[in-house]
Amino acid sequence: MGASGVSDEYSPPRLARLLHSLPHINVTLHRVNDTFAPNSPIYLESLGILGSIPGAWLILTLTVLLIYLLTRCCDRKQRPPRSITALKITLMILSVLCCGAIGVGLFGNDDLHNAMLQSIQAGNQLAALVNTVKNQSSILEEAMGSRARAPLARLADALDAPVANQTALGTLLRALSALRNNASAAASAADNLRRPLAALSLDAFMKRLWVWEAARWAGGMAGWCCGGAVCVALLAAAARRSRRALLMLCVCALGALVACWGASAALSAGAVAAADACQDPARALALHAPHGLPVDMVHYYLSCKVSRENVLTAELRNAQRAVVAVRQALAILSRGAPQLFNDPGLQPALGALGAGTGEAERALVSLSGALECRTARAYFVAAARAACDGGLQALSLQLLAAIIAGFLFTAIVLVDSHAWIYINTKRSVSVEEQAPFLSTGSAGSRTLPRPAPFPNGKPPSYSAAVQLMDLADRDRDRPRSRMSGSATLGRAGSGTGAAAALAAPGGSHTLGRAHNGKYATLSKQCKTLESNDFY
Question: pTM of the entire structure?
């Protein structure tokens, strides 16, 4: 992801321009300035409003789910049993789609990590450039400052000896004074180069940024993997049709729903803020990065616009002129001093000054390359392209995956809760249906008396039963008499069993024994036969 950094030209990506074009409004619904300004409360307020859109949708979703669950749980209306195969298939399809959305989120998280690593790598190169400036400035300052003091003192002592040629001595003394002054000027310029960058610890910042990015990547992977585990578990629960598993996973899906919409709120605000910063990343870093440097200096090296001379460039030129003057003065001393003086300490002092001047010249060459704005600009453009092109695409991909997963988890919670309520209601109805159809313990319930055992263990013959049924029909056709007592089929003295009807006090009719006790109580047997015909 990102460009290779061959060209130092930067233009905002199309996605950054699209997200930047989203309206930035305040609480009064008025548009505000969309320039990246993280220190401005008005700008942060506009980002909060953009991020609150998924939050508002989450509140609406939870309200709808609460109303749905309350109406379904309180609904005790008996409905005919139906198959839940359609619910199971729907839940499986939603779970598979949810797994796909989670996979897209995982891919976006990993892609964002790769883009950030590329940006951090370019930042490390920029940090190495800053460290080069610091180190070479220190070398220059040491070569022209502390290490040059002792040779200059020995050379001054050697030139104090009396000589006859005062003209040549005056030339050497002027050269020595120029060498001392220019060496001091070079050391001062080197200190001015190093001092503004002393507080800048870009390599330590890049290390912290790497740690933060590693933690963000690990947290993102953990979150997306937890969502994927919920989807896979829902798929397994739908296949098993387990009521307890459906209930537990419905709660997990509800938590994943909240997490997805919460992540959508954070990602939407972050994506818009990143798009705003990517419109002019050099200005954004110069104004709002915690570097502690002058804004003009940072903007000069990141944008490489040579509208005016940079402070570091001016100090570099001063150091270069001073070192050139030191070299010229040292050449005059190296030619004339050995001819006038025979001091044994003269050559070592001139040699030390020559070595220090050579080291200063090499440091200036390194500083000239490190302080060239095109070098810093190339590293910065590589980092900006990696972050604003690949990183912003990956961030937007995660935002899209979180929104899709939020909608899918909403549908999963609805279908899962509906399936659980249906299975729970169906089980309760099946338990009621498995209860005895003829209850004996409830008050006011209609009970059928249990028939008495037949005499001799045998039921009455079919003809006797038909005869008794005819008697019962004729008795029902007669007008009811208001007699007390019960009509009983008495015993016939010697006949084959004529029925004598007597009115009983309760109005109930009982058929007694007939034909010398051959048959049992026939009223119960007739009722038993009637009940058998009913079933």
Answer: 0.71
